[in-house]
Specification:
mainly alpha
């Protein structure tokens, strides 16, 4: 159990720090101001959607997909309402892009550090990241396309406070990119910013503590059980990605990552592609989808579990195949 704990704490420390920084940035209006600034450009609906999805991809890469869905989903919904267009593609695009864009950096997704560690992500996953993001954006824009204009709603004007929140986002990006072990520095930065501002993260300590305990327990079991590793070793990268995608839907991608990577996997990048992109198949695939449902309902958006899976059944095979082709 000690070995499993030593493996699990850096990812959780890093993600906790990023969530704390994200809470301060949200309090300063960083996300809302960015989204409102884009929506004020009076872009055509599809162009507006693509611009906001690009913003989601950037936030996800730097500040983690959970931070992204919590804070960016309301931003995209409000932007659609301001512009008077159908909010459906903005709503589903926020979570689909967050999962697809979580391939790039160590802190973008907990599974990245659990499967590959800090040295295995980053620029080595740049091409799969670019391809999966581009396909997701195209899918949302042209399949879940903006519909007929809706009635424009009067939304409160977003105001950006240039202060510790924006500085924290920049500092977090530098730390993640520059350091081999950024977990403790990012956590320290997040704690300091939160303490100085008394901001509250949208994902509470009990949730993270429960996930950490689950990870340690499953990691301990998986280290003495070679079944999953043997199964993946006997398959190729395509089967590995498919297996991990299905496992993420059945178990959630975090427990699936722990079970499938307790021993060095034969095809680590394929495993990561399945674990990160597979959750777009169903809301059971990751914590981010549950947080997305909560964020969507907090602004009165009609988030459907069934629609999520119907759209994901088309999106996921395409993004996994494309990402594997360039990995």
């Amino acid at each position: 159990m000690l070995a499993a704990g030593e493996r699990a704490w850096p990812p959780f420390a890093l993600v906790t720090g990023l969530l704390l920084i994200g809470a301060v940035a949200a309090e300063d209006g960083v996300f809302e101001a960015a989204g409102a600034g884009i929506s004020r450009l009076r872009l055509p609906p599809r162009t507006l959607l693509l611009a906001l999805l690009t913003l989601v991809a950037g936030v996800t890469a730097v500040l983690n997909l959970d931070t992204s869905v919590v804070f960016m989903t309301p931003v995209l919904v409000h932007a659609a309402r301001r512009s008077g267009t159908n909010e459906r593609p903005f709503l589903y695009g926020s979570v689909f892009m967050a999962n697809s864009a979580s391939l790039l950096l160590p802190g973008s997704n907990l599974t990245n550090l659990l499967v590959l560690g800090h040295g295995g992500t980053g620029w080595t996953m740049l091409r799969p990241w670019l391809v999966s993001c581009a396909l997701t954006a195209a899918f949302v824009a042209f399949v879940v396309r903006p519909g007929p204009p809706a009635r424009t709603r009067c939304e409160p004007r977003a105001r950006l406070h240039v202060g510790s929140g924006l500085a924290g986002v920049v500092a977090a990006a530098v730390l993640v990119l520059a350091l081999n072990e950024p977990a403790l520095p990012v956590l320290a930065l997040g704690v300091c910013l939160t303490a100085s501002r008394r901001a509250r993260p949208r994902v509470g300590a009990p949730v993270l503590a429960a996930l950490f305990a689950l990870t340690v327990c499953l990691g301990t079991v998986a280290r003495s059980w070679h079944g999953p590793a043997a199964l993946l070793a006997a398959t190729g990268p395509w089967a590995t990605a498919a297996t991990s995608a299905v496992a993420s839907v059945l178990l959630d991608n975090l427990p699936a990552a722990v079970l499938l990577s307790a021993h060095p996997p034969a095809h680590p990048r394929a495993l990561l592609v399945g674990l990160d992109l597979g959750p777009n198949l169903a809301v059971t695939g990751s914590l981010s989808a549950v947080l997305w449902l909560r964020a969507a309902r907090s602004v009165g958006a009609d988030a459907s579990i069934g629609a999520y899976s119907r759209l994901g059944a088309v999106l996921v095979p395409a993004t996994i195949a494309a990402a594997l082709a360039v990995a």
